[in-house]
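Example record

The entry below shows one chain as it appears in the dataset: sequence first, then structure tokens.
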Amino acid sequence: MGIYLKFESDKIQILDLDTTESFCQFYPEKKFDNHLGTVTIACGSPHPGFSGTNTLATIELMPLAIGTTHLAVDPNSKVLLSDGRGTNTLTEPVGTDFVVQTTL
């Protein structure tokens, strides 16, 4: 699996990238860069992998501004099946807008 996220670094910052609940067992790459607004997770699990719903990572965010911001999955991201061919199941662009709210 290779997941590459992009976020608006002037609106949110990443505080923590937690993979303790993840199905993955090895991580060649697991990092974030608040200056560039990127999260990179490359990981894998031995065959047969997993089926059903599972967690890849939990990302703790800190809002920097009130308003709507965008979190996008880079088109180079891949979620590969353990089918002997590495079929990519991530075929549609994924992204979401969310409202960042702060309190005093």
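Notes for this example: The radius of gyration is 15 Å. Strands lie at 2-7, 12-18, 26-33, 38-44, 58-63, 67-73, 95-100.
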